[in-house]
């Protein structure tokens, strides 16, 4: 007997080559993660790139960002309303406000505190400066002001100088700071400590001192109120001046008709009389002859 249905080829249950490769890939965690995450991200990235390719869309995004940023920065808690200055006298405080022309109120995000600090620190009268924004919208400027220790005479006028030899500010007349010593001459700022020490050891002569002059960047001359001049040596100037002060206290040396006391040679001090004393001496010598 023949079968009612013809024989059909039996189907092979094994997967095809490509099906087998796909199943193997699906068993790989990295490939599954790529399909679940990478492909969606790629699609979204493509859509965003296509949307932002238009200039109008990009400008809309920038405007929205700028508007949001401005709204945050202009909030009241970020606004600076005034400036407070500590450690400065009235004149220096005025100079600080001049070099920091800030228009209040202003957002703290618009302040470059480091640049402002460097600007304040560059002022001659400022040794150190700090800036910070205090709670309450206050820009706090703290300075360490240089303290003048002497008046320095230069060809174009008078200047105040601190202990480091830094020129602080100009003054109009010597009478503006009569409490400070007067120094002048080439190299006087480099030897400022020694010049100030001459004032310290002057004792009763200090009231008569008009100033000290640096000569040839190597030694000092002391000028007194009546034009008398004390010439000091290159080395040991303070000790030589102390000898002159002692001689004046004991023998009233500088109360006599002396124009110059030359102490440049320690073992041979020299006195030069003034013109009136010289004339009297000549007249006396002539009468004796």
Automatic annotation (TrEMBL):
GO cellular component, one term: cell division site
GO biological process, one term: cell septum assembly
Source organism, top-level taxon: Bacteria
Record carries keyword Cytoplasm: no
Chain ranges passing through the membrane: 34-53
Keyword field contains S-adenosyl-L-methionine: no
Keywords assigned by UniProt, alphabetized: Cell cycle, Cell division, Cell inner membrane, Cell membrane, Membrane, Transmembrane, Transmembrane helix
Protein topology in the membrane: Single-pass type II membrane protein
Pfam name, any one: FtsQ_DivIB_C
InterPro entries: Cell_div_FtsQ/DivIB_C, FtsQ, FtsQ_C_sf, POTRA
POTRA domain ranges (all copies): 78-146
Subcellular location field: Cell inner membrane; Membrane
Family that this chain belongs to: Belongs to the FtsQ/DivIB family. FtsQ subfamily.
Reported function: Essential cell division protein.
Protein's recorded name: Cell division protein FtsQ
Organism: Thalassorhabdomicrobium marinisediminis
Source taxonomy: Bacteria, Pseudomonadati, Pseudomonadota, Alphaproteobacteria, Rhodobacterales
Gene name tied to this protein: ftsQ
């Amino acid at each position: 007997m023949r079968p009612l249905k013809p024989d059909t080829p039996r189907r092979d249950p094994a997967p095809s080559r490509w099906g087998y490769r796909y199943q193997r890939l699906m068993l790989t965690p990295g490939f599954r993660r790529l399909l679940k995450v990478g492909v969606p991200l790629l699609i979204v990235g493509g859509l965003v790139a296509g949307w932002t390719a238009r200039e109008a869309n990009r400008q809309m995004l920038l405007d929205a960002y700028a508007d949001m940023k401005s709204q945050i920065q202009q909030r009241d808690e970020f606004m600076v309303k005034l400036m407070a200055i500590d450690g400065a006298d009235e004149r220096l405080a005025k100079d600080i406000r001049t070099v920091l022309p800030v228009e209040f109120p202003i957002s703290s995000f618009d302040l470059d505190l480091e640049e402002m600090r460097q600007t304040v620190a560059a002022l001659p009268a400022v040794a150190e400066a700090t800036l910070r924004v205090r709670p309450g919208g206050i820009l706090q400027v703290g300075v360490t002001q240089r303290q003048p220790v002497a008046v320095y005479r230069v060809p174009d006028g008078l200047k105040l100088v601190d202990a480091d030899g830094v020129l602080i500010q100009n003054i109009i007349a010597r009478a503006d700071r009569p409490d400070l010593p007067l120094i002048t001459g080439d190299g006087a700022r480099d030897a400022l400590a020694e010049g100030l020490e001459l004032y310290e050891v002057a004792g009763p002569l200090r009231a008569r001192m008009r100033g000290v002059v640096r000569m040839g960047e190597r030694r000092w001359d002391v000028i007194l109120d009546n034009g008398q001049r004390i010439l000091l040596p290159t080395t040991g100037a303070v000790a030589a001046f102390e000898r002159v002060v002692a001689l004046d206290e004991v023998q009233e040396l500088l109360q006599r008709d002396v124009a110059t006391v030359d102490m440049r040679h320690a073992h041979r001090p020299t006195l030069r009389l003034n013109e009136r004393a010289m004339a009297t001496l000549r007249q006396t010598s002539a009468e004796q002859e």
